[in-house]
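Good morning,

Both structures are done.
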Amino acid sequence: MSRNFGVTCLGPPNPFQVTLLASMGVTNFSDEEFHDAWENVQEGDQVIRTEIYRVLTTCYGFEPMPEELNFFVSKLGLDQERDPVTWDEFLDVIITIREELKIVAKNGIHFKSYEELRLARGKHTRNKNGPMEIFRQPFTMGQEYGWHEEEVENERRPKKSCAETKHAEALIKAGVDVYY
């Protein structure tokens, strides 16, 4: 049985934990559940590369997130022609992904003790990781502004001046005192 028990139509019990970057199906399901899904998809010890998506969907009961699918594609080399994937190879990739996600999960921890929290609050220091390094998506509408990966380009718009202003600026540059 998976650890997603208790998810209702109102959403998960802890929305902060669910939206963490480290919260993926690989961390929520056991090796036995993956093996059962593997057996349901393919009889035997091998699965062809196009069926990995079906293995994950069968195990989770829903479609895997694109980020998680990209992990499997890159780790197993599914974007290239290759031999069928064996269970041992698939299990090794699951363990590797879990280890990488543990490192990412450390970004979500700001303080290890109450004493650290108290000192940081007294000094008004900022956390080393912002919300974009911890969560997949913004929690509030206000966080949506600036929550992006793309490069922002600012278009320059030169100041337009009327004829009178241009004349006054020319007089000032020439050394005429216009404010006498």
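Second structure follows.
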Amino acid sequence: MIRAKKRERLRAFLAGHGIATGIHYNVPLPRHPAFREFVPERETFPVAERACGETISLPLWPGMPEEMLNDVA
């Protein structure tokens, strides 16, 4: 996972080069329905909000071909 301020632009660039990306945390945990009861009503979480707008999951797995690893890097 990486962070990029221009996330969608980077995702488009990577897709144009055949590199798939994902967004796995599009809702900050404090706003997730499963955690709602644990979060004070007026509490704000600017770091979590910002991170959810900037994070990108890049492809990486054991046995990933070296050429693919180099392309992603």
